[in-house]
Amino acid sequence: MARTIRIGSLADFPEGELRAVDADGTALVVVRQADQVCAARNRCPHMGLLLTKGPGGMRFDDGVVQCPWHNSRFELCSGANLDWATGFAGRSVPRWSQRLIGMGKKPLPLTTYPVVVDGEDVFVEL
Fold first, then answer.
1. CA dist list (Å): 31 to 10, 21, 63, 104
2. CB 46 within 8 A of CB 108
3. How far, CA to CA in Å, does 115 sit from each of 80, 85, 123?
4. 57-72, pLDDT tens digit by residue?
5. Rounded CA gap, 87 and 110, in Å?
6. 112 φ, ψ (degrees, to nearest 5)
7. Which member of 10, 14, 100, 118 has the greatest number of CB atoms within 10 A?
8. Torsion-angle region of 54 (φ positive above 0: left; ψ -120 to 50: alpha; else: beta)
9. How far apart are CA 27 and CA 35, in angstroms?
10. Statement: the pTM of the whole predicted model exceeds 0.70
11. Are 100 and 70 in contact, with CB atoms under 8 Å apart?
């Protein structure tokens, strides 16, 4: 059964900025874009490493988050996988070595969660 957890107010999520949030023990990344607030698990599905901390640094642009470990890219609001393990620590690697970095795992999407905005309060459904 889904739990609804308050993760902050709209003011806590400046438009276009990725924020790391803890929702009752679940690590999330949250972004506010125009009239929409989106949340996803703060773990890359490739190896379960944080999307907000790593050797490549946090990278988020135009609704797309990039894993700082292996450069996988995801559309945050839908969770769609755009690129899978294309590098290491923010650097690109030759195409032939991308299979090694991918470790034989098939591309997966981010786990996303429904977000509800009630007045100024932002809630996530886990």
1. 10, 10, 8, 31
2. yes
3. 17, 28, 6
4. 889 999 999 999 989 9
5. 18
6. -110, 160
7. 10
8. left
9. 23
10. yes
11. no
Residue type, 95: R
Tokens of 16: 């276009």
pLDDT at 17 over 70: yes
Residue that the structure tokens 């290491």 belong to: 88
Q: Is the pLDDT of residue 79 over 80?
A: yes
The radius of gyration of the chain from alpha carbons, rounded to an integer in Å, stands at 15
Q: How far is 126 from 24, CA to CA, in rounded Å? A: 9
Amino acid at 42: N
**Distance between CA atoms of residues 19 and 8, nearest Å:** 11
Provide long-range contacts, Cβ within 8 A and 24+ apart, for 89-98: 89/54, 89/55, 89/56, 90/55, 90/56, 90/57, 90/59, 91/56
CA distance 34 to 53: 25
Q: Is the pLDDT of residue 105 over 90?
A: no
